[in-house]
Write a structure and sequence with these properties.
Layout lengths: L21 H7 L13 H27 L7 H22 L4 H18 L1 H5 L14 H10 L8 H48 L10 E5 L32 H11 L5 E2 L3 H8 L2 H4 L10 E4 L2 E5 L3
Length: 311
């Protein structure tokens, strides 16, 4: 699937660019004007502000979904521990504010309302739904609970602080276990991708008429939705949920050239723009090829070495 159009000078955004704020493109010189600044029509600025406002409910919802919603990494015990933590922090805050003036209570309420938005500002700056790995500021909520339980030692029981510490320790251990599994899975994916690419390129080099560095190499299809991907039933849970992990280290057009140049050190002339890849996918000869790893999935087509990954 090609990424949405909208890049500078008609170039489509890649998936990586689609989660970058416009300020990133301006600093890189990919956007002629600073976001919301000089040279941007007033209508465009108003549309941008309207888009930010439309994203506000989603930003709040995602914070609570991440903390309390079901996911493969967020089991029932973690959700229960988080709920108790939040209630404990709220109770400690109420006990602290009982002896404070009304003005202080109003200020605290305003800060609490703004807190989820501050923790998930990436949601407003991203053009796509952020993955779990982009939401780490959300976990500062637990630090806030620990702070609240020790805010007024004379008012708040010491048992509250100990309970908060135990709950946070439990949540931390659960996250460490899951994170280590996720990184182990990612390492296995990298090793599988490297082995698959070396096997494919060995067959490409045997094609008649192929010249290293001169003959275009085309990977037609989707790396992450094909038999190219890594599969392991024991740890396939890491492919699910909001982790953003997949079974291939090469995920979109921008990573193809990076993989060949930086990981393999190859001089292969790899086609790495989505527009070209889409054009090759429409080629009747490519469409007639079987998908990887079937016999005939690697062939010379119109002077290019084509590897058909999927339809």
């Amino acid at each position: 699937m090609s990424p949405p159009a909208g890049g500078h000078k008609g170039r489509p955004y890649t998936k990586a660019q689609s989660i970058r704020p416009r300020s990133y493109e301006y600093r890189r010189g990919e956007c002629p004007h600073p976001p919301g600044g000089r040279g941007v029509p007033a209508q465009n600025r108003s549309d941008k502000y309207a888009d930010y406002l439309a994203r506000l409910p989603g930003a709040y919802k995602q914070v609570f979904t991440t903390l309390l919603g079901y996911d493969v990494w967020n089991n029932r015990g973690m959700r229960l521990a988080t709920a108790v933590c939040l209630l404990l922090g709220l109770a400690c805050l109420v006990l602290t504010l009982r002896k404070k003036p009304l003005r202080a209570a109003v200020q605290v309420v305003i800060l609490l309302v703004l807190l989820p938005l501050g923790l998930n500002v990436v949601y407003l700056l991203s053009e796509r739904h952020p993955t779990l790995l982009m939401l780490y500021p959300v976990y500062l909520v637990y630090a806030l609970v620990l702070l609240l339980t020790g805010l007024e030692p004379d008012t708040i029981p010491h048992s509250a602080a100990w309970l908060a510490c135990l709950l946070c320790a439990f949540i931390t251990v659960q996250n460490v276990i899951y994170a280590n599994g996720a990184y182990t899975y990612r390492k296995l994916v990298y090793e599988n991708t490297r082995a698959q690419v070396y096997t494919i390129m060995a067959k490409v080099e045997d094609l008649p008429g192929y010249v290293e560095g001169e003959t275009p190499v085309v990977f037609s299809g989707d790396f992450t939705d094909s038999n190219f991907t890594y599969h392991n039933d024991l740890i396939r849970l890491y492919e699910e949920g909001e982790t953003g992990l997949s079974g291939s280290a090469i995920t979109y057009d921008g990573t193809i050239k990076w993989w060949f140049g930086n990981i393999m050190g190859s001089s292969a002339k790899v086609v790495n723009t989505q527009a070209e890849l889409d054009a090759w996918a429409e080629n009747p000869a490519v469409q007639a090829m079987p998908s990887y790893p079937a016999s005939g999935c690697i062939a010379m087509v119109d002077g290019a070495a084509v590897i058909k990954l999927s339809d």
